[in-house]
Amino acid sequence: MSSFINIIKYPERGKWAKVLTRPETNNTKLLATVKEIMTAVRQKGDDAVHAYGEKFDNVKVMHLKVASVEMQENTSILSKELKNAIISAQRNIEYFHRTQVIRPQKIETVPGVVCWQKPVPIEKVGLYIPGGTAPLFSTVLMLAIPAKIAGCNEIILCTPPNKEGDIHPAILFAAKIAGVSKVFKIGGIQAIAAMTYGTKSVPKVYKIFGPGNQYVTAAKQWAAMNGKVAIDMPAGPSEVEIIADESANPAFVAADMLSQAEHGADSQAILLTSSEDLVAKVRDELEKQLPALPRRDIATKAMANSRIVILKNDDEIVDFTNLYAPEHLIIETNNYHELSERISNAGSVFLGHYTPESAGDYASGTNHTLPTNGYAKMYSGVNLDSFLKKITFQEITRKGITNLAPTIDVLAKAELLDAHRNAVNLRVNS
């Protein structure tokens, strides 16, 4: 077991940063590739998109956009069971995100001065859905549903095709029922570039959402810096932290770690506990469960990035967690409510022995597009607000400007901005 999971006992606080290290990548070559492809797509449009699709995805597609006939034919082959499951998840996700709608409220800050804030949908958004080793049709729901609720006019989706030039029918079905406007057979950096700059086939969008590999992540960051487009967040390899005590079921804990590990070879799972007895039991369960997984090779590689950390007490566990800022946090302890109140940095928290991360990934209703790599210290996961911008309004009467004038006059004078003073005083004295 020690060959693919590292067990660290009672590390000193001064060494926590080293214990918390995430998988790293060499960005020098990566950024050069991103720059090359982003520039080529900006200059050559669809021609560059096709060329890079053939180079990286080993497939030549005649048309980038999925036609309605193709959409209908591909989704018709899905089993009724899978369709019903997708629809069930859709209902829960929609229900949860509709509760996030906020009605504007007008506030009179002083007599005659009324201010309010109006949420307005981002008109054009682009969703990136990875293909890779698994079709992430659940991510289609997580992104398209709140975009539709927000009222985005155009919701486009890019995802890489398979070797036959097709998109997984479950992705197409999820896109259809969630309200996606157009689907394109484009993957990788070239997909981000197409949505950033626009091509003959692909509309330019104002904000890009969705996870991806290190190249997609770097492309999104490039787009945010150079393409006049916003992104949801810097998202890297997926991760989970589990806090468990002697009350936890070792089989549950091991399954939670492996469910994260099977995402990708660069994923990470961390278990924090103060119980050495639990560590031995979890280790045994990992040895038992891992060989039975179809994606065991991927999970085994991810477990090399993972670790079990034994700490002295709850105080250390909470401090360690807030320093790590995990994407997913599962708390499987007797006092999970008490511990959860002390967590300030996490993307999404799963409470109790019967709340696996898998529930949030698929069907409980919360969003699974979350900040990774410590960005939970300053980013939220995707939610309804992610697809909205807020415009402030104010309406001031003659009485209101008279009430504000003395304050504005003093402040503008102190900042040596006399035109600001005149704009107010002329009105007061008119």
Please characterize this protein's 3D structure.
By secondary structure, this protein is an alpha/beta fold. The chain folds into three domains: 27-231, Nitrogenase molybdenum iron protein domain (Rossmann fold, 3-Layer(aba) Sandwich), CATH 3.40.50.1980; 236-380, Rossmann fold (3-Layer(aba) Sandwich), CATH 3.40.50.1980; 397-429, no CATH class. 45% of the residues lie in helices and 17% in strands. The protein contains 17 helices and 14 strands. The strands form three sheets. A six-stranded parallel beta sheet has the order 1-11-10-9-12-13. It has a five-stranded parallel beta sheet with strand order 6-5-4-7-8, with helices on both faces. A three-stranded antiparallel beta sheet has the order 2-3-14. Helix 7 links the parallel strand 5 and strand 6 (182-185). Helix 2 (27-44) crosses helix 3 and helix 16 (398-414) runs antiparallel to helix 17. The longest helix is centred in the N-terminal third of the chain and has 19 residues, at 80-98. The protein is globular. The model has no long low-confidence stretch (mean pLDDT 95).
